[in-house]
Design goal:
Elements: H1 3-14, E1 16-20, H2 27-36, E2 41-45, E3 48-51, E4 54-60, E5 64-71, H3 74-78, H4 94-102, E6 110-115, E7 120-127, E8 130-142, E9 151-154, E10 158-162, E11 170-179, E12 182-186, E13 188-190, E14 195-197, E15 203-205, E16 209-211, H5 213-222, E17 228-232, H6 238-246
Parallel strand pairs: 6-17, 8-15, 12-16
Antiparallel strand pairs: 1-5, 2-3, 3-4, 4-5, 6-7, 7-8, 8-16, 9-17, 10-11, 11-12, 11-13, 13-14
């Protein structure tokens, strides 16, 4: 048996192959030597030799070739390395901070806060232990002499159309009950369905909360009954927090 083959066999046993040669030994010669011990080389690239369940890395110079043997688990080698995902917690919006500080309870995964000061209807969804802002709609509210009620309520009945007694020839669509005759509904339409008053962010209603058509449809279709509704400008009384736990 040649010295080279003996060296290869010795290297497989000890973990290191060291071959002295006055000439440069190139990759093809190393591959040939590995083949000579029937190792079945299946990958030769950039001086790295993969043989069955072993990996050989080679470094050559003028006088010698050193082949280091590293035994690896072929199953683990085939598996891609898991990429660590850094979880970055999203910052809360102003609306989310306000609601999460208030910490109201809702019997569904949704919560509605009507911000009368800024004429916004904020829709929140429960995610983990926090309320996260899902939608934000502009709205119009009640006039000073017919104000929109304040407090904490729950979503009640829903309907497709109603006809206000105070405005003959007018209809409102996609209504969602807040309490009694106080509703979320679309802007005013004529009997043909044409919008006749699209004003937003004003005090113009008889107490209901007017919404753009798509906003009213969203609440009508997505927000379930018994969802908590908060209508207030700012937290005026600790009793409102207590009320949220009783409703």
């Amino acid at each position: 048996m040649s010295i080279k083959i003996l060296a290869i066999i010795y290297g497989i046993i000890t973990g290191t192959i060291l071959i002295n040669n006055p000439m440069v030994i190139n990759n093809s010669e190393i591959s040939h030597l590995l083949d000579s011990v029937k190792s079945n080389v299946y990958s030769v690239k950039d001086g790295v030799y993969s043989v069955k369940d072993h990996t050989y890395s080679a470094k050559s110079n003028i006088t010698k070739v050193e082949v280091k043997l590293k035994i690896i688990d072929p199953k683990k080698a085939a598996e891609p390395k898991a990429i660590e995902k850094k979880v970055v917690k999203e910052r809360l919006t102003i609306e989310e901070k306000y609601i999460n500080n208030l910490a109201p309870l809702s019997k569904t995964n949704y919560l509605i806060w009507v911000d009368k000061k800024n004429f916004n209807v904020n829709i929140f969804q429960a995610k983990g232990f926090e309320w996260r802002l899902e939608k934000k709609f502009p709205c119009s509210i009640g006039m000073s002499n017919t104000p929109t009620i304040e407090g904490m309520f729950e979503v009640g009945e829903k309907g497709y159309t109603f006809y206000p007694k105070t405005n003959p020839g007018i209809q409102c669509k996609y209504y969602t009950q807040i309490s009694g005759n106080y509703l979320f509904h679309t802007v005013l339409m004529d009997l043909r369905g044409n919008i006749v008053d699209s004003r937003m962010r004003e005090q113009i209603s008889h107490g209901c909360i007017r919404l753009q058509v798509e906003s009213a449809i969203y609440i009508y279709q997505n927000i379930p009954k018994r969802t908590k509704i908060i209508i207030i400008e700012i937290l005026k009384s600790f009793s409102l927090i207590l009320l949220s736990y009783m409703i």
